[in-house]
Amino acid sequence: MRLHGITAAVKLKVWTLMVILVVLDLAGSLHRCIYDEVQAGVKVVRGETSQRHSSFHEARLTQGPRASLRPHRSTKQKAIMERLALSESSFPQPIKIKIWIPMESVHLSETEDTRLKAAVEEAVRTVSSILSVNRTTNPLLLSRDFSKYCKFVWKNSSSVNHNRCGKANRYYRNETCLDVTIPDDHLAGCDVYPEADSPHRTILRPEGAGLPDVDFVLYLQIKATDKCRAEPDVLAYAVQCQTDMNGRPVAGAVVVCRNRLTEATYSHQTAVQTVIHELFHALGFSKDLFNTWKDCSSSNKGGPPCSSRGKVTHSDGSGQMRIYSPSVISVMQKHLVSSDPELGGPLENLDAAAEGVSSHWESRVLQGSIMGAVLGDSTTIRIDPVTLAAFQDTGWYTVDLRLAQPLVWGEGEGKSFGSIKTCRDNSSSFFCTGSGLGCHFLHLHKGECQTDPYLDGCRVYKPLKKGSECWKTESSRWSDENPQSGEMFGFDSRCFFSSLSREGYLVRTNSSIVGRCYRHRCTGTNRYQIQVSGSTWVDCPAGGAVQIKGYHGSVFCPDKRICVYPDVSPPLKDNSTPSSFIKYDFPGTLTSRSEAVVVTSLGFFAAVCFLATLLMFCRKFRAHLHRIHTVATEDPHEL
């Protein structure tokens, strides 16, 4: 979610200091995203061009002095421009993202700095490995907001300077992106034409150098804003600020709530996921852009350039707003195992705009998606196939769909899965009724049957607030409801519905089936064994139940949930140490700061060498003194 610059693809070119959203890693907690609310207050600048060389092409594509002065291109000219821009890159390349933090932003402690660099590196590297773009060879140059710097426009269509600025706004100062001032060096210039038919112009702002080797720039601020203070479940928020001539976002911004960075419950993996979530919003997962997506299927085959997909958001028969685009429909049908054409990507209805469209997936249908409206425990969040299919259908990106993580939630459940009607009839094991204890659907956590505003009254097993993680040995301290249930905690433990109780102890007549943690080991796909305290390994038939010698009751063995998805596992390590090639960079000191790092390193190296040389000299000198002393005491005749 969330350095005069970090540039990322396969490698990061610039050292970075980026602050990201840090989510409280309390099991069962939900952290809300307010992207749509904040984006509604930000004007997105629709850039005619994305690269500084466009004016040169425009001059070559127009004829005559009058045409060359006009700022607006014809449809034919725009099509030619698009082809020229795309022709510079013969194949898609991993997107390069620069994160820019203003100098006035707060300074981080060493701990915060170390954590954040590690999270940023991993998040940006992940996004860059997933999304690729057709890159031009020229620097990224952002457009200025014409309505901000221009007070008067020539309206006479017969004038040479028709639709050009005739008078500047004297109060114009700068361009901003969510209150971050965009450096003039990142921006195109702007001119004023005082006379309607004269080519004479006044340069209001000169053209900047642009951002070399960059596809997207994200401006970042670390602040304790009013939103941060008023809403404790809001940890950060982001917006998009500018798109290029093809509609692809090329600039965005994020504000990180400062006090979230010092939480004792900081989790590296949670931070990484949150950065990815906010980056996905800024890169185009936005209700304001859904209906601007491009169909580039023909252009990829050497045909005409990309065409508009038109409106892709529509309501299904039940009133659920969905995204209907080819890849999204295909992935949804495959996921739910249904050929129903109504299975578009469902959009969250809570906090949706008047038209019912939001920038998040519906929680009832796509629980655990990286683009859900709320994020919970980091082990339950997935970079899912439906989200990546949506990016594929934008037409702006080539997406490596192989990197999608299986969603698990609702897989194979049919076209009606997640509807308000079916979630309450107890027909799906993904939902629950009442308020009892059980297992989260990934079986990494014990859970409690709960709902929240985004579930519209449906209930799911959410991780307990304390001691839910079966894979943590320390969770055993919270497991005191039935000490004779045979629970075992550790990295290979999973949650199972169980009614076990040791023989020889008083058995409750109303012994209930609840979530318990037992060891497991895979013996094949969807095949595994379990072990409870004091028992041997026992085969646990998927979809059936097993009894354990020495215990009353049974353990129920989930089907198609355990030993099916290799990447559904506890975190091996919550590492917050960055790799050595992350660098620091601040506005105005891009070169000098980097040089300072180099000089400091060289100075340290020289000092070490000097001390080593001095030590060696001292040792030799002492040996020499010792030799002189020895020689002086020997018989002079032997000399």
UniProtKB/TrEMBL annotation:
The cofactor note from the UniProt entry for this protein is: Binds 1 zinc ion per subunit.
Query: Does the keyword tRNA processing feature in the UniProt annotation?
Result: no
User: Which Pfam families does this entry report, sorted A to Z?
Assistant: Peptidase_M8
Which source organism? Oryzias sinensis (Chinese medaka)
> Its Enzyme Commission number?
3.4.24.-
InterPro entries, from UniProt? Peptidase_M8
Q: Could you say which residues bind Zn(2+) here? A: 277, 281, 360
This chain's protein is named: Leishmanolysin-like peptidase
Source organism, top-level taxon: Eukaryota
Cofactor(s) needed by this chain = Zn(2+)
Q: Where is the active site?
A: 278
